[in-house]
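Worked example (supplementary).
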Amino acid sequence: MVIYGVYIVSKSGGLIFNHDHNVPKVESECVFNKHPIDLKLVNENKKVVVSFGHRDGVAIGHVLTSLNGIAVTGSQLDDGRDVFEAIENPANFPLTLKFARLRVTTNEKIFLASMFYPLFALASQLSPETKSSGIEVLEADTFKLQCFQTLTGVKFMILSEPGQVGLDILLKKIYELYADYALKNPFYSLDMPIRCELFENNLQALLEQTEKSGNVSHI
Amino acid sequence: MAIHNLYIFDRNGSLLFYHEWNRLKQSGMSREEEAKLMYGMLFSIKSFVSKISPLDLKKGFLSYKTNKYALHYLETPTGLKFVLNTDIHASEVRELMKKIYSQVYVEYIVKNPVCRLDEPIKSELFKEKLDELIKQSSYYTAKIA
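After joint prediction of all chains, the assembly is encoded as:
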């Protein structure tokens, strides 16, 4: 069982806790011998992104992280040169470019948490059946997201590999930990980000134990 | 086991086709408004999924489930979107949706020269064949409302 991460969203849609458990690194290095390179790169959101082309593990959406070992920040190399100019100049070849799929930053996580909130509500509104809840399980080809909403409106979410079963039990266990270690902490105020060491340690232990046994039911 | 309803959207998000079989709750708005809301939700889910995914997506968003129904999503490379709502126990819905696309949509809309591809589907033949396919699928059984 692989668990990518755990998120807790408050009643009002704010991210109050997130834990990256086992996020795989997607990185690849390519050597280009001839000018021009056979990938189409564009500047998107202040990053150099692959917009067309596919080779040696590099796919659309990957971001350029280094050129000949020199790190890239935005569309500039750390020695001050512009990335596009460096790639366009035949004298610089052969080039070694390193691409990676960027990890979600904390800001993006907050954004995603608040984005899930209306999706959850819409799923219930557009339901063809009466009295439907919001999204409980969302599946894509690379992951599965399981969501559990408590009676008080707090949402617990787990991101795991696709086809994983028994996540609902794990979510209830996390809820238990939340009730025990976060809510009973006198220094924790409701709807604020959870910064309780005890909660984090116990959660970490629970996730590790679950991953090892591959099964949640007998914990 | 039940199939609730089907939406087909084109690449620009306009509703090409809607049909319902066992729908127990109406959304309380006009069909156009509902379709816009549905498309907006799918669009957001797609962007949500592409951002939160830890690995590179291939097919992307596949389905979601609530406690009462499951929504299955199929998008063709041309941007045509099929949305089928079923009960939560239905299995192999993806195969059925692929059949709807390849055996009904392609056969009776794409291969019909009088059907325009960017306009809502009015073909009676398409409706008939679709109904036939849905009704003969193993998990179509009318639920008592």
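Two points are worth noting when inspecting this output. Chain A has four helices and twelve strands. Residues 69 and 215 of chain A are 43 Å apart (CA to CA).
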